[in-house]
Amino acid sequence: MCAVCCSALRRTSSGGGFGKKCCFSMQGSMAATVCGYGLTLPKVSTSCAGRSKIQSRRTQAFLSSGLNVSRRVAGPLGSKLSGDALESQQARFYLLQPRQRNSGIYAIAAPVAPYALEDPEVRAHLAEEYGFQQIGEPVPSSVTLKNVMDSLPKECFEINDFKAWRSVAITVASYALSLFLISKSPWYLLPFVWAFAGTAATGLFVIGHDCAHKSFSKNKLVEDIVGTVCFMPLIYPYEPWRIKHDRHHAKTNMLVEDTAWHPVVRENWEEFSKPMKAFLEWGMGPLRCWASIGHWAIWHFDLKKYRPSEQNRVKISLAAVYGFMAVVWPLIIVKFGVVGWVKYWLMPWLGYHFWMSTFTMVHHTAPHIPFKDTKDWNSAAAQLGGTVHCDYPKWVEVLCHDISVHIPHHISQKIPSYNLRMAYDSIQQNWGKYVNKCTWNWRLMKTILTECHIYDEQRNYVPFDEGLEEESKVIGTLRKILPNTA
């Protein structure tokens, strides 16, 4: 058993200060998690001297002594870190935040404060912790979005009709091939073919995405027609999506205002019913890779969400989608039955939403990437420092037309998808120290799915079960079963 003076670890409501004096003792040994590090805590007695509010805001230190530190594969990190290495960082991390568990104290460490991210050693530790290759320095307030945009080669913004229609040809050919393979594949190969089909279908979305940003063709009518047609098989109304997506770019990582996903606001979470909380735990946990289905259903079919001046164009998009459903779906069912509808349309559609959800989630979600309210939001920090470059398998990037090269797209939406890599190379050369980048991996996904849930002003995110006596069965199970490899 252990006795804990909780005031030693509890933040004050004034912004991160601690109590006047505190201590805690642990008899026997217990396990804790510190920034994902598995700690074996022997019998120790540790004192924490009180400090002023200003000092605590500057250091937010984890004061420790006599701790034997070992890394466990169960934690988000898979290699060993010595006690000396952790102690060298002790003045750079937030204090432990304890969670009571049936098995004892389960402690987690909050993300470091923005000023601490200026330290390259802190960024390196967090990059390994979260599954990143690099966590960028905080973007200075002196850097503007125009500064970054002006540094890009002019060629990045040039529309090339041949390259644009080549993207269409690649997508149409790959999607047609996937449907042929579905018709010929034995049942045990269908999951692989559906994965290919869903990825090819995502190419349709990316082409429509370029059309919506006016980076596909110099003819705007052509863009509207191509965008609408590409979105039809996805049952995605083009114009409603375009309107809401423009707001995402204007207010990226702005709390509440961003129409893409953002953390659950704590005040709302506390008011939710148990069924709603359970729904969110599943939706932002194991089902998060398909959460765009909910976003699609909620945002894009309700005329009331659009201004009167927008509604006529919205109605055209809705008519196109409903027309596809009324004509193509019955044809599939007549020819192949309901099972055929599942095989040829539903499963590829679910594959598309897997990528839609995963791309969106990875592009802007990590424990160190903050959401800001309107008064604290900064455009350059959100678009350059709050957007993630993620490398996916090459076949995914080819079929999805480099949508994963996302930072330049948030610098300027006028860059066509086929020029994103050129723009990214320029950003790497001129602004590379601010770039967040990773390769898609299990540790990255585990971090997002198990930790990035509820908005916290000081720590950016806390998990749904933070502060609870028992670990969430849904999120806790994910922590146990998801691989930790990067």
From TrEMBL:
<comment type="similarity">
    <text>Belongs to the fatty acid desaturase type 1 family.</text>
</comment>
<keyword id="KW-0812">Transmembrane</keyword>
<feature type="transmembrane region" description="Helical">
    <location>
        <begin position="164"/>
        <end position="182"/>
    </location>
</feature>
<dbReference type="InterPro" id="IPR012171">
    <property type="entry name" value="Fatty_acid_desaturase"/>
</dbReference>
<feature type="transmembrane region" description="Helical">
    <location>
        <begin position="316"/>
        <end position="338"/>
    </location>
</feature>
<protein>
    <recommendedName>
        <fullName>Fatty acid desaturase domain-containing protein</fullName>
    </recommendedName>
</protein>
<keyword id="KW-0472">Membrane</keyword>
<keyword id="KW-1133">Transmembrane helix</keyword>
<feature type="domain" description="Fatty acid desaturase">
    <location>
        <begin position="187"/>
        <end position="439"/>
    </location>
</feature>
<dbReference type="InterPro" id="IPR005804">
    <property type="entry name" value="FA_desaturase_dom"/>
</dbReference>
<dbReference type="Pfam" id="PF00487">
    <property type="entry name" value="FA_desaturase"/>
</dbReference>
<feature type="transmembrane region" description="Helical">
    <location>
        <begin position="188"/>
        <end position="208"/>
    </location>
</feature>
